[in-house]
Amino acid sequence: MIETEAGRAASRAAGEGLVTADMLAQLAYCERRFHLVYVEGRWGDNAFTDEGRFLHRRIDAQDDALPDPADHPERPQVSRSVSLTSDELGLHGKLDLVETQGLLRKATPVETKRGPAPDKGDEPWEPERVQLMAQGLLLRANGYDCSDGVVYYAASRRRVAVRFGTELEQRTRELITRIKALLAAPGAPLPPPLEDSPKCPGCSLAGICLPDETRALRDPEATEPPRRLFPAHDDAAPLYVQDQGAYVGKEGEGIYVSRGRERVAFVHLKDLSQLVVCGSVSVSAAATNLLCEAGIPIVHLSMGHWFYGLTTGVGLRNAFDRAAQFRRAEDAAFCLGIARGIVKAKLSNQRTLLRRNGDAPATDLEEIARCMARVDEQSETESLLGVEGTGAAAYFRNFASMLKPREGEAPAFDFARRNRRPPRDPVNAMLSFGYAMLAKECTVALIGVGLDPYWGFYHRPRHGRPALALDLMEEFRPLVVDSALLFAVNTGMVGPADFVTTAAGCALRDGGRKAFIRAYEARLEQLATHPVFDYRCSWRRLIVLQAQVLARVVRGDISSYEGITTR
Questions:
Q1: Has residue 219 been placed in a domain?
Q2: Which of 1, 46, 93, 416 is packed most tightly, with the most Cβ within 10 A?
């Protein structure tokens, strides 16, 4: 989420209790979008917002003041990027362009839009008319005669006039009053999404709002399948820096990695989702500032790839999700409902992975199925832990049957049981490493949606333990990490020489670690079908989607949590 300069200016105005012209346009377009942007501080970019920002580059390059008519009494004048405020109206706006006509003090605001003009005879959409009317009110409040405005449509290169009549002015004033009421009650619930609206596909917040997904989870009997209104996977990807002594610096709108005097990598911000630094890697202050401003987290791992923490920017500027999260965590019934959804999904995914890839006896598969059936019978999370443990024991008893290493490598990949702290064999070393990476992924996703990754519902909070990230990752352990491990071993990406075993335990060597990261990242980028929404997107996107769903359950927008399962 990268906030634009115009967005920051609007946020400052909102913080001063002023309604902005853009707020009026957003509310007229969709009340749920207004709430997300101006009450919860969320923002998202897409091709349309990028195009609009490009079209406004000339306007935003300078800030003009309205001219004194006495300077040029007879000649019309044009002013760009004009900021005006009316304390009486409680209104602020940054006008794209204002055309003034000398001593007549007549002013015409011109608003630039990227799309095509409406058909001849049709007037602009209501959000555009309301936004212009607000600019007209600001010009009037500053002593100008303003009876009409203009919308300039860049795609059509056409100007369309908007008359400032009584009805439009009344509607605009009603929206100003409505916005003041909404901003005075910031803890209000999220408004319902639009129903199958044509506005949603082009909305830059569709992947945050989740209109169709919300409808599908609220009404399981709905016949219309949800539309996937966001990309199946992100173009941006994490950058792992593992070379000890490496240096990360800033250059333009990107970062570079150097080792000594040799530059080994350069990545543009648009291609970067996370910077993951492992061990003794230096990141310059300039690079840190750039990444924080862009909303790109820096993930800190130890040389052994234990997850230590994150460096992030300010992020979401509200605490409503976290306040709701802490309240919900005190509700034992709510925590149990979340825990049931998590455990049921995890057991189902473990059973499916065994059925697809292993030679587990029917008795063990039936035992996991019985555990799944017992989940809803548990009345407290402590007993649920026992059910999960029984199912996990049956799963790991048969884990070795899914490992099919190349001939001669089997002894190195013998797996008897799960062990950790420290792991004693190569398979457990990869599992521990992979789960640490997945915890990092879930932590980033939860912070991105406004939740506290350290305050869980199933895993109890403990100092230094990302309990909610552990909650979220449970259903993804077999789907992401275990699957990546099977691929790495069974295809020969990692071999016995990629591990070092001592009395202190077993660990991946540098080459093996890099190979496993490639397998892990490849798995996150694979497409999968969502079991409820029935569309395909990457596993990384599914993790973020589940974090969003969990946040909506916490806020009461959705009634219950359902974990991701594979078919």
A1: no
A2: 93
What letters, b where the CB count within 10 A reaches 16 and e where it falls short, cover 147-165? eebbbbbbeeeeebebebe
Proportion of the chain in helix, strand, coil states, percent, rounded to 5: 45, 20, 35
* 336 shares its domain with 248: no
What's the average model confidence in pLDDT over 448-452? 88
> 159 forms bridges with which residues in the sheet?
152
Per residue in 394-421, pLDDT (tens digit) is 998 888 889 887 666 556 677 777 877 7
Does position 4 have pLDDT exceeding 50, yes or no? no
Tell me, yes or no, whether 390 and 446 share the same domain: yes
3 pLDDT higher than 50: no
CB-facing half-sphere around the CA of 454: CA atoms within 13 A: 7
Instruction: Give the position of tokens 């917040």.
Output: 205
Q: What is the mean pLDDT of the segment spanning 262-274? A: 88
Looking at the fold, whether 172 and 36 belong to one and the same domain comes out as yes
- The reply to whether 237 falls in a domain is no
Q: Is residue 389 a contact partner of residue 418, using CB atoms and an 8 Å limit?
A: no
In a domain, 32, yes or no: yes
Residue with tokens 């990752």: 473
Q: Enter the DSSP assignment of 481.
A: I
Q: How far apart are CA 187 and CA 318, in angstroms?
A: 10
Taking Cα atoms as reference points, which of 346, 332, 412, 343 lies closest to residue 380?
332
Distance CA 453, CA 451 (A): 6
Please tell me the number of Cα atoms within 13 Å of 95 on its side-chain side: 30
- Pairwise CA distance, residues 459 & 37, whole Å: 32
pLDDT of residue 318: 61
Question: Which CATH number belongs to the domain containing residue 77 in this structure?
Answer: 3.90.320
| 215 within a domain of the structure (yes/no) | no
Range of the domain at 249: 242-311
The CATH number assigned to the domain holding 516 equals 1.20.120.920
Which CATH number covers residue 295?
Answer: 3.100.10.20
Provide the number of structural domains found in the chain: 3
**135-149, 298-312, 457-471: which has the highest mean pLDDT?**
135-149
Contacts of 363 (CB under 8 A, 6+ apart): none
